[in-house]
Amino acid sequence: MYKIKITGSMQKNALIVTGAACLLMTGVVAQADTGTYTLSYPTSGVYGGNDGNPINGGYNVLNSFLAINNNGTIAGTINDTNLSGAGHGGFAGSSAVIYGDGSNSAGTVVSGINSAGGIVGTYTIGVGTSSFYSNAANYGSAAPTVTLVDNNLHGSTNATTVVGGINDAGTAVGVSTLRNGSQYIFEYNTTTSGYTDLAFGISGASSISANAISSNGYIAGTYVDTNGIEQGYVYDGSTWTSITDPNVLGNTTNLAELTVVTGVNKLGEVVGYYQDANGLDHGFVYDLTNHNFGTNNVNASIDDPNSTQSNTQIFGINDKGTIVGTTDGTWGFVGTAQVAAVPVPGAFWLMSSALAGFGFIKRRKV
User: Fold this and answer.
1) % of the chain with per-residue pLDDT over 70
2) Least confident residue range of 110-114, 126-130, 269-273, 342-346
3) CA 98 to CA 91: how far, in whole Å?
4) What pLDDT digit, counting tens, does each position of 167-176 carry?
């Protein structure tokens, strides 16, 4: 097991999560995770730069980083006075994405992106909000590739369709809510344009969201429990796992204390944030395999050391373990796990030599 800490331009460390370290043999050294996330605030490769970040001090462009694909392309929302209307829109990499009524304050939100550049999110038309899927060719169009409307729910007409994420297989995930209040998770196949609906598997749940889907089909999101407290969950295709950050574990009365799960990768690394009793947000990483948040299941939170309002939210993670999120609702960040070269113990090589010699002798006897 290893400890991870987070660092930024200011010296402030926070222990966050444990997991299994992987050694890759490369000659006489191995690559090992150092247990450190380094935060960066990219000013290139993101539409309009990231002028709201704490490094260069500008605030004409404010970005929220909501998703990252396996190529490292970031997607999210942007508030840029250079954009049309009120300046609210979405982005995918270095491209702006504005559908529907760009002057509406809600604008376009890009909440998911896959390695082929397929994106999902929501956009406004008048006072209504619609979900969409688009390929890269339609980033700059006035309308998305497809407006998502799941109408195959048990013969009923659904009231709303809210998409959350998309994986590399081209499967989008979200929640459809019927007019009677019933909710179902949907998967949308971007190749066949077909919908598959799934009943939520945690008893007594309400206000469901499906925020992400991994490349191997894990679905992650939130729900409200019977006490009215928001919790996170992951569905791996057979088991529904409820996720509550240990910093708010046991709360049954304070609605401010909640856990939000926003992303999951194929390794079972789950990301999100919890809100404490003071209404402040702190990021976390959860290990679905070992069912823990940190050393001895004690999570000391992931907090951006540059935050001035003590609000750090993690929204996405890719299969390489790179995370993205937003600080103080103002600037986006990328968190990269650091690795270092370490010597392979001499005993390993002695054992390898002995085994090799044994094999040679055995071959000669044969």
Assistant:
1) 70
2) 342-346
3) 8
4) 999 999 999 9
Rounded to whole angstroms, how far apart are CA atoms 91 and 70? 17
Long-range (24+ apart) CB contacts under 8 A made by 178-183 are 178/153, 180/156, 183/208
CA angle 96, 84, 315 (to 5 degrees): 40
How far apart (Å, rounded) are the C-alpha atoms in residues 74 and 320?
14
- pLDDT at site 190: 96
Dist CA 42 CA 65 (whole Å): 11
Round the average pLDDT of the chain to a whole number and report it. Answer: 78
Domains by residue range for the chain, with CATH: 5-365 (2.120.10.30)
For residue 320, the model assigns a pLDDT of: 94
What is the C-alpha separation between 258 and 38, in angstroms, rounded?
26
**Nearest CA among 129, 87, 92, 235 for reference residue 173:** 235
Task: Tell me the sheet residues that pair with 32.
Answer: 340
- What DSSP letter does each residue of 312-348 carry, written as one string? EEEEEE-TT--EEEEETTTEEEEEEEEEEEEEPPHHH
- Single-letter amino acid code for the residue at 36: T
Q: Are 101 and 125 in contact (CB under 8 A)?
A: yes
| Cross-strand partners of 161 | 176
Q: How far apart are CA 263 and CA 213, in angstroms?
A: 7
Query: Please, are residues 182 and 154 in contact by the beta-carbon 8 Å criterion?
Result: no
Looking at beta carbons, which pairs linking 181-188 to residues 24 or more positions away fall under 8 Å?
183/208, 184/153, 185/210, 185/219, 185/221, 185/235, 186/150, 186/161, 186/210, 187/213, 188/133, 188/148, 188/150, 188/163
Write the burial class of residue 10 (CB in 10 Å: 0-12 exposed, 13-18 middle, 19+ buried): exposed
Structure tokens, 68? 């990252």
Tokens coding 239: 């088991």
The DSSP 8-state label assigned to residue 292 in this structure reads B
**Alpha helices for the chain (secondary structure H):** 346-365
Distance between CA atoms of residues 230 and 179, nearest Å: 22
**What's the farthest any 2 CA atoms get from each other in the chain?**
83
